[in-house]
Design brief:
about 250 residues, alpha/beta, TIM Barrel, 12 helices, binds phosphoenolpyruvate
């Protein structure tokens, strides 16, 4: 079975004490991960050592970065490279989140370099895609998302693409309390898989985990994750509440 993943995106939230409390609370709640299930915490970079220490020895739980610079090292003040994340044990890096595309002008061309940088350190890119509201209203979301995938990922080999996790996040559902219906999520996830199947073949496409993101919470996670092409979620707001995120982990199939 494909990996089923509950990924927390804390974004730029929490003090160090709050981060420690949240992880402590979460670990004290009942949550169970089977062999094909993972929980990933994309925490602010400064809290990676703390989270790594708190989650040490927990099977199938990983600490991730929310972004990285595309270069290995050099005069890029304030930036952190993928090889640096590797040295502190990070195995997953979120790339191309819509907030980074919007506020930091990340383009598909830049994302090609970042994807390559993450794969070069044998880590997993969690590659975000998803359409704004006007594209959904125009009914052209499939074409929009396909072009994000083709532009940033289609240079990869079949072996490389099978190591990428996709997060489909409709921008109109991020942090808005609006979620895509489970049917809408299934429809576009199946389409995304078909885009990979056309380029790489069905068996490679079937290995790629495709997460849904956009106002996932305890109350809707089970229904969304139960769809055949939805392999878990990338979760913002609800990942900051221990009881919510524990329930989301437990909703994985
Ligand atoms: C996100 O930031 O990736 C996200 C999906 O946020 P939220 O769950 O708050 O909509």
């Amino acid at each position: 079975m494909r990996k089923q993943i509950a990924a927390a995106n804390w974004k730029m939230n929490l003090s160090q004490n709050e981060a420690a409390t949240l992880l402590n609370e979460l670990l004290s709640l009942p949550h169970s991960l089977q062999a094909h299930q993972e929980a990933i915490f994309a925490v602010p970079a400064i809290y990676i050592p703390l989270a790594t220490q708190k989650l040490a020895g927990k099977s199938n739980i990983y600490v991730a970065a929310q972004n990285c610079h595309q270069k290995e090292s050099g005069a890029y003040t304030g930036e952190i490279s993928a090889p640096m994340f590797a040295t502190v044990g990070v195995k997953h890096i979120v790339l191309g989140h819509s907030e980074r595309r919007e506020y930091f002008a990340e383009s598909d061309v830049l994302l090609v370099e970042k994807v390559n940088a993450v794969l070069a350190i044998e880590s997993t890119p969690i590659f975000c895609c998803g359409e704004p509201l006007e594209i959904r209203e125009a009914g052209t979301q499939n074409e929009f998302v396909a072009s994000q995938l083709k532009n940033a990922l289609f240079h990869l080999s079949a072996d490389q693409i099978s190591k990428v996790v996709i997060a489909y996040e409709p921008i109109w559902a991020i942090g808005t309390g609006k979620t895509a219906s489970s049917d809408q999520a299934q429809e576009i996830h199946a389409y995304i898989r078909s885009v990979f199947a056309e380029k790489y073949g069905q068996s490679i496409a079937d290995q790629i985990s495709i997460l849904y993101g956009g106002s996932v919470k305890a109350a809707n996670a089970k229904e969304i994750f139960s769809q055949p092409d939805v392999d878990g979620g990338l979760v913002g707001g609800a990942s900051l509440v221990a009881t919510e995120f524990a329930a989301i982990i437990n909703a994985l199939k």
